[in-house]
């Protein structure tokens, strides 16, 4: 596990799909801090970090200004998908959602 600025993480899911989870998580994280036993799982590909698991934790941390956040790198992708195909399939709106959340470009 390592710690990283959340602005360096590239989301792969749209924010709108997780609003309920974020609303539940924010007050918990605000009271107890980031639970390091649940790091954000990422794919490292071409010197970039793509979020695989933990979008709602990332969003809650960003809303609360938590920086850095814990990450772990995974080597495998669902269905053994090649990383370049995975990266091509990321919706552009996912990145923009998180940029708005953070208040500036990622």
Automatic annotation (TrEMBL):
SUPFAM superfamilies: ParB/Sulfiredoxin. This is ParB-like N-terminal domain-containing protein. Coiled coil: none annotated. InterPro entries: ParB/Sulfiredoxin_sf, ParB_N. Pfam families: ParB_N (PF02195). It comes from Sulfobacillus thermosulfidooxidans. Residues 2-93 form the ParB-like N-terminal domain. The lineage of its organism: Bacteria, Bacillati, Bacillota, Clostridia, Eubacteriales.
């Amino acid at each position: 596990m390592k710690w990283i600025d959340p602005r360096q993480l590239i989301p792969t899911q749209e924010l709108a799909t997780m609003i309920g989870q974020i609303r539940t998580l924010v007050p918990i994280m605000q009271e107890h801090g980031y639970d390091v036993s649940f790091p954000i799982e990422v794919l490292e590909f071409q010197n970039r970090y793509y979020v695989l698991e933990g979008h709602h934790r990332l969003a809650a941390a960003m809303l609360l200004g938590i920086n850095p956040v814990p990450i772990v790198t995974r080597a495998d992708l669902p269905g053994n998908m090649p990383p370049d195909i995975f990266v091509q399939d990321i919706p552009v709106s996912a990145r923009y959602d998180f940029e708005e959340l953070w208040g500036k470009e990622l």
